[in-house]
Amino acid sequence: MTRLVAGNWKMNGSLAANRDLLDGLVSVPGVEMAVCVPYPYLAQARQRPDGIVLGAQDVSEYAAGAYTGEVSAAMLLEFGCRYVIVGHSERRALFGEGDVMVGRKALAALHAGLVPIVCVGETLAERDEARVMEVIDRQLGAVREVLGAAAMSGVVLAYEPVWAIGSGRSASVAQIAEVHGAIRAWLDGHGVSAGAVRILYGGSVKPDNALELFDVPHVDGGLIGGASLAAADFMAICRAAAGGV
Ligand code: PGA
Predict the structure, then answer these.
(1) Per-domain residue ranges of the chain
(2) Which among 101, 180, 200, 205 is placed 20 to 30 Å from 163, CA to CA?
(3) Is 45 close to ligand 1, i.e. is its CB under 6 Å away?
């Protein structure tokens, strides 16, 4: 399975800064590299080095119509997107997105021909209460309910413990191994063709921890926030995903 390393720029950038960042990227053989940019910069990011694919950070669950402020999956496709992140914890926590809405967004993406990167993960309180798999079961279950098991094999999943995002404190190798293995088993147990689903890890992936994180079983790539804003760091992480070459 080809690893995917996706940069999530979040609400960062400017025309000038994006140009420098994009110009600093070079595709790494054996790894699929994506940049998920803010909507207004999709047009700019169509001019990018060969081999870098384009994504967005959110999508509407609706196809078209009177939904002020929303952006449809078909629009993203028209601007060259292949991927769209759905259910990022920032959207869940700050913008009130629930599990079912996340499932509907994933469905809208698939319908239009995009690949949704569906984010799941627990808060620190939930981990402290030993509820990690209960939370992930609920989040994945809602997506399966909306998509159905067959279509769910067409998504990319990202395990992003909320407490590891932007905190400088990534999950440990043991924690990641446990949850990624459990997600793979969950897919198998719920009729989803698990071998086809890439499971990314996200949360404080940096050049200095990337090699050991990508070495964990069932880690099929990464979703990179802060470190995707510096071309050298993002490139180092992508090289680590290729096996450190
Ligand atoms: P981070 O963000 O790499 O800055 O922790 C990851 C994410 O939010 O996808």
Answers:
(1) 3-241
(2) 101
(3) no
